[in-house]
């Protein structure tokens, strides 16, 4: 970590340290690993074509830019500096035409031209990276010097100069169109650091940057629950109506299909958060040190496990990046190409198999039909119930929660999922929230019988 990053991290730690808490650093003590992740999603534009550099090229030269744009021009070394503040490292990167998928030592990061998703587990300090992340985004997406560059990568020196400058928190937050921060309730909250020790501290931290932020608790306060913070920088109701009108206009004319890329992207995130995994399901995620002697062998072992369990065959035409941790643990990112059954997107899986704190998470933004029967005969999943069933069968959790967060223009397609039923499981909660421009479905299940 460089001197500036270290000083920034130490200052943030001091500001958000609870002086009434025990002085011992719980993160340095032994014990079980905290599997549930912190998840941050930031949108800086509704789609790629709405980025300032793309709008300028269209207005001045009448051309539509291609290649690596927006945040994808940020050098890897710059992201590494930001992740030092979060206390995690980049293990590997997979790229597609739309996104860069970073597999981290503690979970994942997905970088699109116009948005970024950062997910970290354990005692990582995700929010301590927010200020640096916003400065990087502001310098890359909105500063005149960056917009004038035609190179595929923005100068790391230029970004470093912008990061070192003064900027009010609210000015930085004003660059963000939508902010979503969420997490499951922690198993071991006493081990967390800084604002992550308490949900209200996390909320207060985010309120420094965003006006009109709103924090929610979904589910049982004395049981499994899910926490969400949202801040919107636009009028979502007006945007939803404008999007519907634009779609109708395109359908009624002979406008080329490429014109659809000027519409705001449909936002969908499905998470399956599983605890108390069956011992048998955990066995494949314990590894012998001799089988993962270096990073290449750890990746190969991760790919082998993915294939054996059926994770790599969930979707067709998938770029998989998987990693086996010694002595136990597993992470994977996958980039999925579009087919007639679903959109393009990503999925990511992270597994903590220790008996005292077993946990697995599955997340995807691939848009599948929510209606449809569970079909075991299909090689690849064709609908959301089938996907949920396939994932749950792999890990066989004692308890799991499902969250589907979807933009309101497609919320009707999720209605069938509200009545989801799975063999051997009882639904204990079904909660539906309607936010400005979004709908959230929260389902909680517990197994009716114990599995080995």
UniProtKB/TrEMBL annotation:
Q: Which UniProt keywords apply?
A: Autocatalytic cleavage, Decarboxylase, Lyase, Polyamine biosynthesis, Pyruvate, S-adenosyl-L-methionine, Schiff base, Spermidine biosynthesis, Zymogen
Bias kind Basic and acidic residues: ranges: 1-17
Tell me one GO molecular function of this protein: adenosylmethionine decarboxylase activity
* UniProt cofactor(s): pyruvate
What is one term from the GO cellular component aspect held by the record? Answer: cytosol
Q: Region entry Disordered: which residue ranges?
A: 1-24
Keyword Lyase found: yes
Q: Known EC number(s)? A: 4.1.1.50
The protein's enzyme class? lyase
Q: Which InterPro entries match?
A: AdoMetDC-like (IPR048283), S-AdoMet_decarboxylase_euk (IPR001985), S-AdoMet_deCO2ase_core (IPR016067), S-AdoMet_deCO2ase_CS (IPR018166)
> Tell me, which GO biological process terms does this entry list?
spermidine biosynthetic process; spermine biosynthetic process
Q: Which pathway?
A: Amine and polyamine biosynthesis; S-adenosylmethioninamine biosynthesis; S-adenosylmethioninamine from S-adenosyl-L-methionine: step 1/1
Q: Which family does it belong to?
A: Belongs to the eukaryotic AdoMetDC family.
Task: Name it.
Answer: adenosylmethionine decarboxylase
Organism, by scientific name, is: Malassezia globosa (strain ATCC MYA-4612 / CBS 7966) (Dandruff-associated fungus)
